[in-house]
Amino acid sequence: MSGLPAPIAIDLARVSGTVVDIPLGNGAYIIVPEGTESDYTTSTGDELVATVTDGGTVDGAVFRPGIKSVSVGSTDITVTNRLTGTSAVFTVTITPAR
Predict the structure, then answer these.
(1) Do the domain assignments include residue 65?
(2) Comparing C-alpha atoms, which of 49, 32, 50 is closest to residue 41?
(3) How far is CA 47 from CA 13, 44, 81, in A?
(4) 63/25 Cα distance (integer angstroms)
(5) DSSP secondary-structure letter at 39?
(6) How many CB atoms lie within 10 A of CB 40?
(7) Residues 83 and 38: beta-carbon distance below 8 Å
(8) What is the pTM of this model?
(9) Cα separation of 45 and 53, whole Å?
(10) Which range marks the domain in which residue 85 is found?
(11) 74: which of 18, 21, 42, 93 fits an S-S bond (Cβ 3.0–4.6 Å)?
């Protein structure tokens, strides 16, 4: 066992308009419909609080959109389906490590 905290799963269908707490040192991934991971882009309001990665495929491995905690604070995260243009916006609060 590596001792790393498990990433937090965030359901895209339910997250818009909510606040998600992520402990510092932890990360999260966005649950999107299987097979559509590459359709989603992400943006953060403050890269000093949290960074984001788009969904996609790298060397045959499929990755969901993700969030990485950087420092304690809050920022808005936007996840957009590049095919439909629909977006979900929610706030991430990075809390002190447990």
Answers:
(1) yes
(2) 32
(3) 24, 6, 21
(4) 20
(5) G
(6) 22
(7) no
(8) 0.92
(9) 13
(10) 8-95
(11) 93
* Number of independent structural domains in the chain: 1
Note whether 50 and 30 are within 8 A (CB).
Answer: no
Residue 48 has a CB neighbour count (10 Å cut-off) of 10
Could you tell me whether strands 8-11 and 27-31 are parallel, antiparallel, or unpaired per DSSP bridges? Answer: parallel
Q: CATH number of the domain that 84 lies in?
A: 2.60.40.2020
Which of 42, 8, 9 has its CA nearest to residue 25?
Answer: 8
pLDDT truncated to tens, each residue of the chain (98 aa)? 567 788 999 999 999 999 999 999 999 999 999 999 999 999 999 999 999 999 999 999 999 999 999 999 999 999 999 999 999 999 999 999 87
